[in-house]
Write a structure and sequence with these properties.
By secondary structure, this protein is of the alpha/beta class. 29% of the residues lie in helices and 17% in strands. The structure holds S-adenosylmethionine (SAM) and iron/sulfur cluster.
């Protein structure tokens, strides 16, 4: 099987595909309330996204995560899951998964399971109804809860992603841990990253996870475990609940040395690093011919430029975004 290996010897076998920059929520750390989205005509079609994803599978990609914006608001998105799902079960792809805000899961959970998705990430920073409204601005709490129930019924393993925010949900992390433990969900905590302009100041939100972990350890027994999901999270097992707790710490601990992934946007731009501006346009080689030779050459060229790492800083003197694009463009 061919492999993509970058200049630092890292094998790139994981791609995240952002299928839309649009979203039905306006989470405070992710977007401003008044966002300008890409014109729909600039988006790759679902067939083109499938061709790109499939080309990566042909180059050794083992894991594809569909993300956004909110991936499940893109029209006919199940068509893409279905077509990429054909590479599962011996076709080279080992896992097809999705990161979602959960708003559309009650509609799609069964179909997702049917296309071969086994695990999903649902972003949920709070289980307090009022707080949920304050954080997501436009989110509907009941719909997300119904969506989670539908995912469980469909047999999908759920991992909750929560962004830990100072003064916002930091007093609730303990409750969230127990809530997830009771339902058999894993929980991953994420530090706020300086991506794109938002309405507020990120310095006010940033909460180092080293601090959170210290606090949790006063109440829970956190055992180090070697469990990995192919992503950047480091996991511990919470002895009292039996559940797993992950930490994604781009700010306090750089995870770049083991980076195995790249990110594709819905317009066909490949970002080799979440925290850097360098990118490669794959739309042109994709559209230039029906065969994949130009596309494959462009992918190799791009991987040859994957940088060593990112350099995120959030402090009072340095409160500008590290990169101008929002997380909703590259998809977390
Ligand atoms: N809409 C989907 C969702 O919310 O799960 C998928 C896309 S969203 C951009 C992916 C993840 O990025 C979410 O878990 C979200 O909480 C996280 N995220 C967004 N902006 C972030 C930021 N500035 N720092 C850290 N995480 C962020
Ligand atoms: Fe939408 Fe996800 Fe960003 Fe929230 S984090 S605004 S749900 S893309």
């Amino acid at each position: 099987m061919p492999q993509l290996v970058d200049p630092f010897g890292r094998t790139i076998d994981y791609i995240r595909i952002s299928v839309t920059d649009r979203c039905d929520f306006r989470c405070v750390y992710c977007m401003s309330e008044d966002m300008t989205f890409l014109p729909k005509k600039d988006l790759l079609t679902l067939e083109e996204l499938d061709r790109l994803g499939s080309a990566f599978v042909g180059l050794g990609t083992k894991k594809i995560r569909i993300t956004g914006g909110e991936p499940l608001v893109r029209k006919n998105i199940m068509q893409l899951f279905r077509s990429l799902g054909r590479h599962l079960g011996g076709g080279g792809l080992e896992e097809l998964t999705v990161t979602t805000n959960g708003s559309q899961l009650s509609r799609f959970a069964d179909e997702l399971a049917d296309t071969g998705v086994r695990r999903i990430n649902v972003s949920l920073d709070t289980i307090d109804r009022d707080r949920f409204k304050a954080i997501t601005r436009w989110g509907n709490y009941d719909k997300v809860m119904e969506g989670l129930a539908a995912a469980e019924r469909a047999g999908l393993a759920v991992k909750i992603n929560a962004v830990a925010m100072k003064g916002v949900n930091e007093d609730e992390i303990d409750t969230l841990l127990k809530w997830c433990g009771d339902r058999g969900y894993d929980l991953t905590l994420i530090e706020t990253m300086p991506l794109g302009d938002i309405d507020g100041d990120r310095t006010d939100q940033y909460l180092p996870l080293s601090l959170v972990r210290g606090r949790l350890q006063q109440k829970w027994t956190l055992d180090e475990i070697p469990y990995r999901t192919g992503g950047p999270a480091r996991y511990v097992e919470v002895r009292e609940t039996g559940g797993r707790l992950g930490f994604i710490t781009p700010m306090t601990h750089n995870f770049c040395e083991s980076c195995n992934r790249v990110r594709l946007t819905c317009t066909g731009t490949l970002y080799m690093c979440l925290g850097q501006d360098d990118a490669a346009d794959l739309r042109e080689p994709l559209r230039a011919s029906e065969g994949d030779e130009l596309l494959i050459a462009a992918i190799h060229e791009a991987i040859g430029r994957k940088p060593k790492g990112h350099d995120f800083v959030i402090d009072r003197r340095n409160n500008k975004p590290a990169v101008a694009r929002h997380m909703s463009v590259t998809g977390g």
